[in-house]
């Protein structure tokens, strides 16, 4: 079976739909903008590669000045280690013999590898697996309001850091958080207090890693952070425009789709369903935005169909066989649905990259 | 990079998470139950392979008595044609030169191929692409309340059937619908009226194809339907239990996950996020059900984390490092996230099958 990836030089209008496509110039501008901001404010920038899962894009990010990359799972990191990346932070609690064994192998071949931990159980597992030949760098993950993983208080952070530092095969490398949107003050307060407690114990805290694309351009409001991690900024999506992180001109990803039916005057059906867009709502009441057709709303998704409600659409919606562009609610999850990503400039395909880490959830 | 697919004979407790797994006995029972029901009620049964996307499972379905298979897109059908399937219905409006060319190639090699159409634009495209050497079978898709694709009235169905029948390269093969849940009476009324109109024009309507898993066991309430199509029934999911289609004992798919954090007494984090479960809510207010822990609710998903709210959980939830089983809200979309599917019986892996049609959205 022959997947319909386009040749370089193909006009976008000839692409077989549904297909996510990335605007090269907007991609490059997003990469440069984030890096310039972090440079201006004295923060190291560490892009999260989950949004693209493509080594070539991560290389663009490093070339712009990123200090290294952020992966979410061991298997995702392995793909990037295979591609030669030598500074990888895995922001996940790694548990179980199989994953620890793979992590040990990674630590042998990745010059600068680090992981996170938010509990004694995780630290114990890491400590048992690492024997000290090349200590594993561990950051204590702190819950500064995101209410996902993380120790709950600066005191707990200090205690876990001490346990980490006491393990011969581990190296306490600092603290990390994935904050709530708009939570800069909480992050700063947590980091500051944790550092006080650690200093009182004579423990150095060289890395204070903050994260998130929504508040990327507010990272300077957390002066104590040394680095910022962000993934979504590289392509952007509807949720990033809503968060005030970017404008519509910074949207690099669109999903090209074809109108396959106009069953009624106020209804259109597109060939991009949840298997091309995902059902991620991210707080929106519809499943994506059809570019250029204000008031058209993708009100429901089947796996291979998008049903568009046109009753409030102010322009004449395209007819059967015509192409539209959809802005996804959430860009990162689209990358994980496809094996390759198409890039374009001036309406022409420039390259097609393997999404090398697609499906790496372990 | 070496994906952690388990060997045959591996105990489930050793599987690297997150991992969807299929109970062989429940799978076989689901296949048999649907086939027996259809046989009892004189309906041909045509499974929709989108739920598993695995040729070996489709072969099990054919062996049980299915008349052929249902695919949703041309590229999905190509994978199954490659695997030797000779009776394929593609329930999609096929448009554009590239897809029509691939459809023509399929028609040459698939003994019994059929597609649907719900507009003159689609029929015109099909008619222009097919030259009559081997006519393409076309079913007119009817909207009987599902409000997705389909002609809106029996009169419109008759008109489109006439246009189809008039094209030398096409063969009008009947009508088809994907109904609203609980819409049997509407389906029967539409089919009956459409057949009257067609008979009055001397047009035979041999196939009347109904569909959907929720109402699979009410298919006898549509006496005029000759066949029933269903996908989800093969694995089942939380939405099928809610619809009364099956019980919890018929749930063949679970996603194995590990508790990676217990940050607070009323919170747990699992390693199965939207990239293992999808964000499909299907009307539920939470993202999946943790088997055996009533009151535990997956209240939010990140891409690689599930946050579980334990405040109403009546049992002691597992600790960091322990495994849980998640019943997905929607099984079909999980298959599309992974490259392989693990099967088991009595807690032991029996086989690992390539999800051959993963990602085939064109």
Automatic annotation (TrEMBL), chains A, B:
Transmembrane segments: none annotated. InterPro entries: Ala_racemase_N, D-amino_acid_metab_enzyme, D-ser_dehydrat-like_dom, D-ser_dehydrat-like_sf, PLP-binding_barrel. The keyword Protein biosynthesis does not apply. SMART domains: D-ser_dehydrat. Keywords: Lyase. Residues 252-345 form the D-serine dehydratase-like domain. Belongs to the DSD1 family. PANTHER family: D-SERINE DEHYDRATASE, ZGC:162816-RELATED. This is D-TA family PLP-dependent enzyme.
């Amino acid at each position: 079976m022959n997947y319909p990836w386009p040749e370089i030089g193909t006009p976008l209008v000839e692409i077989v739909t549904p297909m996510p496509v990335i605007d090269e110039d907007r991609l490059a501008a997003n990469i440069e903008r984030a890096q310039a901001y972090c440079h201006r404010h004295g923060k190291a920038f560490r892009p999260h590669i989950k949004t693209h899962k493509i080594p070539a894009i991560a290389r663009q990010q490093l070339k712009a000045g990123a200090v290294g990359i952020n992966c979410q799972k061991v298997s995702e990191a392995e793909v990037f280690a295979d591609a030669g990346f030598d500074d990888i932070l895995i922001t996940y609690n790694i548990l179980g013999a199989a994953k620890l064994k793979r992590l040990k192998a990674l630590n042998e071949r990745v010059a600068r590898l680090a992981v996170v931990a938010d509990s004694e159980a995780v630290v114990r597992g890491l400590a048992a697996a690492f024997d000290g030949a090349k200590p594993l760098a561990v950051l204590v993950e702190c819950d500064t309001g995101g209410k996902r993983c993380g120790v709950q208080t600066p005191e707990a952070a200090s205690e876990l850091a001490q346990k980490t530092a006491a393990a011969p095969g581990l190296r306490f490398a600092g603290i990390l958080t994935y904050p709530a949107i708009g939570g800069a003050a909480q992050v700063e307060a947590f980091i500051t207090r944790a550092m006080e407690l650690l200093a009182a114990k004579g423990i150095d805290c060289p890395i204070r890693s903050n994260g998130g694309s929504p508040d990327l351009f507010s990272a300077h409001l957390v002066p104590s952070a040394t680095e910022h991690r962000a993934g979504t900024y590289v392509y952007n999506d509807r949720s990033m425009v809503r968060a005030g992180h970017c404008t519509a001109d910074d949207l690099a990803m669109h999903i090209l789709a074809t109108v396959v039916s106009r069953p009624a005057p106020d209804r259109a059906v597109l060939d991009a369903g949840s298997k091309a867009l995902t059902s991620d709502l991210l707080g929106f009441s519809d499943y994506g935005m059809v570019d250029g057709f204000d008031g058209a709303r993708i009100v429901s998704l089947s796996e291979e169909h998008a049903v568009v409600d046109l009753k409030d659409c102010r322009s004449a919606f395209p007819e059967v066989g015509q192409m539209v562009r959809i802005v996804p609610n959430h860009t990162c999850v689209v990358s994980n649905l496809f094996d390759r990503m198409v890039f374009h400039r001036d309406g022409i395909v420039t390259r097609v990259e393997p999404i090398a880490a697609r499906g790496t959830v372990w």
